[in-house]
Amino acid sequence: MAAASLAAVAVGALAADGAEAGPPARGRVEVLELTVRNDQYTSVDHGPAGPSLGDMDVYSGTGVEDGRDVGRGGGTCQVIHVRGAAVTAQCVITMEVARGSLTMQSLWTKGESPLDMAITGGTGAYAGARGVARFQDIATPDERVRLEILR
């Protein structure tokens, strides 16, 4: 589930990139594309060994664009359903960039890619934001995110 953390960081970076071009008009979509560099990760195994309800992955990372850091973020993925090898978690991510922050959430079945996360709000220039953040190649050196932000 570390992949989700990478996604959060990527989203923050994308938002920062959009800030340089100026905010889009209200009701328009701002598209940001970033790579994600994870820097901290831990897994908390509650209850019996192995995947079980309540287990949690906690992570943080950096959003990168054109070789420069443009945002930071992190979040958690908590296991809410286990059926054999299929482990589903609820993931929540917050990322911070120069013009504000973005919040995202989704359900994620561990190992699936891409992951689409709902953009559920933000602060600053991103207050009231909605949209979709798509993470690809989660938890790999090639992880990236594309945010489509509606304000």
UniProtKB/TrEMBL annotation:
Keywords: Signal. It comes from the Bacteria. Pfam families: AOC_like (PF18678). Residues 34-149 form the Allene oxide cyclase barrel-like domain. InterPro entries: Allene_oxi_cyc_Dirigent (IPR044859), Allene_oxi_cyc_sf (IPR034871), AOC-like (IPR041013). Residues 1-21 form the signal peptide. This is Allene oxide cyclase barrel-like domain-containing protein. It comes from Streptomyces hydrogenans.
